[in-house]
Structures are given as structure tokens and as C-alpha cells.
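Quick review question:
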């Protein structure tokens, strides 16, 4: 009975075994919780591809401009929230060094580079722990 209402994307940005997590603003859904950059695929006025969406979301939330050559599609998760279901497409990018992070202050209030294992100790967004465990075989 899985009935997705929308498509969403997210991206694990990784440097030397650490991933970038963002802490949501308190007034947002799942406020104060941590997750990797991501969001809904936009379908208003045009049909955004998954690849376009992940590049846009990473740039909007972190200020990092990636190219399609840098990102790799990992897998799709089927996420069930109380009020809706959605398909969550997860990408990964390995970076040589930690880039400058420019948070969108409307959405996020902090960021952290952390190992996937240590990330599981943080208060994570609903689907984040499963994404980390499955993506990093934990």
C-alpha cells in the first residue's frame, strides 16, 4: 500500500571518512534534528530531474556547487511518514577537502562533519539513521 506523494533527493558529501550533516532550524518540520543536504524534486512549472534536484538542493543548503560528474547515485529508499509516503533518492560525492559551508539560515542553523557511525548518536531526522546504516553498511 505504498503510495508516494513526491520524489525527494539527498546527498552524502564525504571527506576523509566524514559526512556533512546539517541541523534544521527549530521551527521547521523535525526541528533541531540532523540530516544530510536534500529536499523535494520540484515539479512546479517544469519537471526537474533527480540529478538537477540534488545539485540544486546541495547548492541551496550549503553553497557548494557540484557537477553531475562529481555525484554518484547510490540507492532509492521508500519512506513512510505518518501523513505521506515518498521515494528518497540518495547520492554520494567524495571531496578532497572540506569546502566552505554557507548555510541557508532559513532552513539550517548548524553543520557538522562526522563519521557515519558517530552520526548515529545524534538526534537524526526520521529516515536519516536508516539511510546512513544502509549506505555505509553499519
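Suggested answer, residue by residue:
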Amino acid at each position: 500500500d505504498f503510495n508516494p506523494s513526491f520524489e525527494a533527493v539527498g546527498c552524502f558529501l564525504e571527506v576523509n571518512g566524514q559526512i556533512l550533516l546539517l541541523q534544521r532550524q527549530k521551527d521547521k518540520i523535525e526541528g533541531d534534528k540532523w540530516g544530510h543536504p536534500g529536499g523535494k524534486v520540484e515539479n512546479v512549472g517544469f519537471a526537474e530531474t533527480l540529478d538537477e534536484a540534488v545539485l540544486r538542493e546541495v547548492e541551496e543548503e550549503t553553497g557548494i556547487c557540484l557537477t553531475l560528474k562529481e555525484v554518484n547515485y547510490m540507492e532509492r529508499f521508500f519512506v513512510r511518514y505518518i501523513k505521506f509516503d515518498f521515494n528518497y533518492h540518495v547520492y554520494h560525492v567524495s571531496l578532497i577537502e572540506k569546502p566552505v559551508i554557507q548555510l541557508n539560515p532559513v532552513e539550517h542553523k548548524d553543520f557538522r562533519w562526522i563519521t557515519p557511525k558517530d552520526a548515529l548518536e545524534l538526534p537524526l531526522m526520521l529516515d536519516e539513521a536508516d539511510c546512513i546504516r544502509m549506505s555505509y553498511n553499519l
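Why it works: The first strand starts at residue 4 and ends at 15. The beta strands are 4-15, 18-24, 34-35, 38-40, 72-80, 85-94, 108-114.
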